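re: the backbone from monday

yeah here it is again, tokenized this time
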């Protein structure tokens, strides 16, 4: 399978063969003196990530090296974690090369992704990228890249470092799970989410176990913090066990969901001074709720999973008797 990248220079067009078939193309043009515009059209996901990385690298480094690079996202119909990570990576590379970097013409889906992940503030964003667009402001940060598969949140220059007991910026669990489940649903709509009967059964079993530990918002919020944290850790363990019992797409989904919930392992529910807390933090009530909502989101996807992916209809409401029978340990 082949992807064709269309690269339009000021007076010429070149076709560059690439790695895999994808619904992604790139159109490059000159802007005002010193500016280069790269228009990205299609879907930026795991399949098209290598092509996107190559096009961004070429746009930044091809001579003559621009003083400003703008990525026109108006034709970007879908952007997942993989595409966002590439935009964050090239933003950092541009800052290190002293090249201004901006995103232009955000499509509704891309704008929502940036808002969900808290990364909009990291970019200079302009309404559109016509040939005569003014030069965007200088890129502000030289952030540190996060691990592969995670959404990093670089620290802007001049921004104070987080306090030792503050929750790290950019680790909002619900936002990461929302992006993850959007990728699953996209694959399901495209007929690319294929599970065996055994994996489908495992998905349903995992959903049932998650329901055991994280119930309705009203019930969870009535619990003391120490119990809420206990149940969140139990939910994380359920995802880890499920990951250990399968391979392929379901293992990928469960593993990524567990990675998103990993910050709960750094939380504590009891007061302690910094010397004895070993780097753990006291979560806020909002953070507890965010993590619990993320578990419910994963639970809903797993509960309606079929061999062909999550069903399109909403998951059926749970009977009140089932909810009343939710297992809870005594905190004694």
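seq for it, each position gets an aa:
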């Amino acid at each position: 399978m082949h992807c064709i990248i269309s690269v339009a220079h000021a007076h010429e067009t070149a076709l560059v063969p690439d790695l895999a078939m994808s619904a992604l193309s790139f159109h490059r043009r000159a802007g005002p003196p010193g500016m280069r515009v790269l228009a990205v059209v299609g879907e930026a996901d795991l399949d098209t990530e290598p092509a996107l990385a190559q096009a961004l690298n070429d746009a930044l480094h091809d001579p003559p090296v621009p003083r400003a690079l703008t990525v026109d996202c108006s034709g970007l119909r879908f952007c997942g974690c993989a595409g966002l990570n590439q935009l964050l990576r090239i933003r950092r590379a541009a800052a290190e090369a002293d090249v201004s970097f901006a995103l232009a013409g955000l499509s509704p889906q891309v704008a929502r992704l940036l808002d969900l992940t808290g990364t909009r503030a990291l970019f200079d964003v302009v309404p559109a990228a016509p040939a005569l667009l003014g030069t965007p402001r200088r890129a502000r940060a030289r952030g540190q890249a996060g691990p592969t598969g995670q959404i990093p949140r670089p620290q802007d220059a001049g921004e104070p470092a987080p306090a030792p007991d503050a929750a790290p910026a950019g680790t909002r669990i619900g936002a990461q799970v929302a992006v993850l489940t959007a990728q699953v649903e996209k694959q399901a709509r495209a007929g690319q989410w294929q599970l065996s009967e055994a994996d489908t059964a495992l998905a349903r079993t995992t959903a049932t176990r998650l329901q055991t530990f994280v119930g309705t918002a009203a019930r969870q919020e009535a619990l003391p913090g120490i119990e809420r944290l206990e149940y969140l850790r139990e939910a994380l363990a359920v995802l880890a066990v499920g990951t250990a019992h399968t391979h392929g797409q379901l293992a990928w989904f469960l593993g990524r969901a567990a990675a998103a919930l990993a910050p709960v392992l750094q939380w504590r529910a009891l007061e302690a001074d910094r010397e004895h807390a070993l780097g753990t933090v006291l979560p806020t009530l909002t953070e507890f709720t965010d993590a619990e909502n993320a578990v419910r989101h994963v639970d809903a996807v797993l509960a309606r999973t079929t061999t062909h992916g999550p069903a399109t209809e909403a998951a059926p409401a749970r009977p009140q008797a089932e909810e009343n029978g939710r297992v809870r340990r005594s905190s004694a």
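The first strand starts at residue 4 and ends at 8. The CA atoms of residues 202 and 242 lie 7 Å apart.
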